[in-house]
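Notebook B, p. 112. Complex prediction, attempt 2.
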Amino acid sequence: MADPAAAKWFEVWPFEEGRLYSLLANDYAPPQRVATFKQARYLAGYLTRKGARSIVVENEYIDRDYLEDFEAYYVRCFERYNSRCRRLHFFSTELSADDFEGRVRRFDEASDGLLQSTYLGFVVARPLPEPIVGRTLLKTFDPEGYERRYRAVREYEVSLFGIDLRLDSLPFQQQDSVVAACATVALWTAFHKAADIFDTVAPGPARITNAANTIRPPKRIMPSRDLSIAQMCEAVRATGLEPQVERVTHTTPLASIIYGYLEFGLPVVLCGYIDGQESKGHAVAVTGYAMSKAYSNTTESNIRGVRSEASMMERLYVHDDNVGPFARMRFEDPSGFALSGSIPTPPFVLQGYDLNGLPEHSFSPLLALVPVYGKIRIAFTEVHAWLGTVMTFARVVGVDFSDVTWDVALAKTGEIKSEVRRRTPDVADVLDVLVTPQPRFIWRAKMLRGGRRIADLLFDATAVSRSNPLFRVVWHDSGVKDELKGRSEALLGPDAQKADPGGAFFATFLK
Amino acid sequence: MNEEMSARDRAEARATSRPENETTSGQPDAQARARAVAGIAAMYRSMDEFLAAHVVTQDLLETKISV
């Protein structure tokens, strides 16, 4: 029997769906109502699939993000909302109250190890009428023979009554239409990972909403019903970062954009319209993706001759505040969709799927917004434009590049040099590559043929827009360079492109 | 998707990379050189058009995100 004095602070329950709804419930939102919330049902399904067996409840938990929202709004309401939350921890092992009390009471390496190995994460239950699902950190799914890549997760330390637990994840929470609209929540998720990469701040939702509203709308700031893209950009600047906005059109390499930033660890906030709600925009934070084994024109067709490895993306994992964390979205053929109003012929359609594989809402992105460090000035689209030029150049001089594919991602100089040193010590100019100073942030475009590396084109991500950002090419197959150079000089002459806009680019490319 | 761009790229390829680029002596003829020069010019135009299509406009920035 658990110590009666301690028992009020925690509870231990077997995991089951109805119990989860009861524990998420509060005086304003009874369990029957919680059971109708999509996010609660999603969490129940997710945790069931993760093999949850037990729930340990911290009955009084002070959550920083909720406390900021509480301070910004709820504390000044006549209704006495509680400032304290409840935190539910999930384990894939069976625990009883007595068993758990024993594990808390005394340190035992094996016991803590068992809790760590079976820990699935936590959900903060907010004591509010609607947005009950607060900060949520859940373990991701394993690859299980399927190439899932959760690139925008980070390590979190969780202290449960002195038991130190660790978890790789990214926070999710339900939209709160009082202090944080959907746009705010997507940014809040993205800022958590950006803070890990760039050592910036990760403000709570209320602070994001207030920062966004330094661009004053002709309406109340709170309750917060919406944010414009311009306001979202302002919220990004308030964290010390810059908003990189990539417009989505029919010629946008969307999968490549997502891949390029995600491989660096940066979540991509996609803003667009949900089918049937074209007057209201929606935002999701892309945190990962899964690859198939084949290139797909539905995911991304050749754009200006560039076939991207990212076109093998089979699905995205998104934090969608209307659904849940790591929710699935698949690229669908947009020709089958006709959204009325704002975008009658959407360039891309992402179809949401529930955990049972049944289709949910379809979403058409208008733009991708990525919070980046201020020195990262060259957008993915600019790099892609140069790659299209390389492909056209090869055709013009008569070199067959039809089987060339590209893998483009943002990287830090240290990562690139480390990889060069480990993978290609036999490259002729490897020492020069390693000892020559490089910009801190680099777009690396790997040129591939059937998976074999031909060259790495290194673009200075800190360069000035519209100038030549290519500063180095690491050739793994210099025969390709020799062929391009030879054909070009024979056809056009050795200095043919000197006066062209890309003269400096091709001089570096074929150096 | 991208049909317009692909069609232009294909036309560009046909115009500029014919196997008859070279004469029997191995030297490019004047026509082949002219086609290549035109191809290079089209390449930069295509790049400019691609970048112009991705400029973020004011109306895009005013899109409201609410659901």
